[in-house]
């Protein structure tokens, strides 16, 4: 995905928009836009800016899923300054089947630098790029699930050979930690007579074996 975005940014930036140009993607919370590292014309500090959904030009485009073309950003109440030289802005949503993934944004130091034709072109590019990103994410998710199923199959096959409960539980915890990419965890069993649980296996945890938890 990063490679696709970097390549698209380079090609579009070199052929269409020589000033500030790049991609902003929704973060994992779905509430903020993060500026992709390949964004042209911004320094590393500016790239760390997070834009809330619905705020600024890019945030309102992401929230509304509609492109915006602004002739003079100094006259637009939604504009949030990231680059002081910017005078006009063109922004189109990356709209996929599941919703908005982010936006493509272009800035220019000239007033009224973008035309209606530019808006149409950028919207077409945004739609194609959104399709590409969704396909890559679907592929990544499919590959991740395949790895998980393979790991679960191997774990089930291997565990059937264990006869010792302690060794079995330790092995389950070790495999589960690796599968979930965690530093460790615990396995607890329920004590029906006492109505609590007690730790029977632990990895990377300060809770000792045998500890009882309410």
Percent helix, as a range, is 25-40%
Strand content: 15-25%
Find the structural class using helix and strand composition: alpha+beta
Kindly provide the radius of gyration, computed on alpha-carbon positions and rounded to a whole number of angstroms: 25 Å
Contiguous low-pLDDT stretches (5 residues minimum) are none
Order of helices and strands: HEEEHEEEHHEEE
* N- to C-terminal distance: 45 Å
Write up what this structure looks like.
With 214 residues, the protein is α+β, with helices and mostly antiparallel strands. It is elongated. The chain has helices at residues 2-15, 56-64, 116-159, 165-179; strands at residues 21-26, 32-35, 50-52, 68-70, 88-96, 99-108, 185-191, 196-203, 212-213. The protein contains four helices and nine strands, in the order αβββαβββααβββ. The strands form two sheets. It has a six-stranded antiparallel sheet. The chain has a three-stranded antiparallel sheet with strand order 7-8-9.
């Amino acid at each position: 995905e990063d490679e696709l975005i970097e390549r698209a940014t380079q090609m579009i930036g070199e052929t269409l928009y020589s000033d500030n140009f790049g991609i902003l993607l929704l973060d994992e919370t779905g509430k903020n836009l993060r500026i992709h590292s390949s964004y042209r014309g911004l320094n590393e500090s500016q790239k760390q800016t997070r834009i809330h959904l619905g705020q600024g030009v890019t945030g309102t485009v992401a929230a509304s899923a509609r492109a915006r073309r602004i002739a003079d950003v100094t006259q637009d109440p939604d504009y949030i300054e990231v680059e002081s030289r910017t005078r006009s802005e063109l922004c189109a949503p990356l709209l996929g089947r599941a919703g908005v993934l982010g936006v493509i944004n272009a800035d220019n130091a000239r007033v009224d630098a973008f035309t209606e034709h530019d808006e149409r072109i950028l919207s077409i590019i945004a739609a194609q790029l959104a399709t590409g990103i969704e396909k890559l994410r679907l592929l990544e998710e499919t590959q991740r699930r395949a790895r998980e199923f393979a790991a679960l199959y191997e774990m089930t096959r291997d565990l059937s050979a264990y006869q010792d409960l302690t060794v079995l539980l330790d092995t389950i915890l070790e495999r589960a930690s690796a599968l979930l990419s965690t530093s460790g965890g615990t396995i607890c069993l329920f004590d029906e007579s006492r109505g609590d649980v007690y730790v029977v296996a632990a990895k990377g945890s300060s809770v000792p074996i045998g500890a009882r938890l309410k």
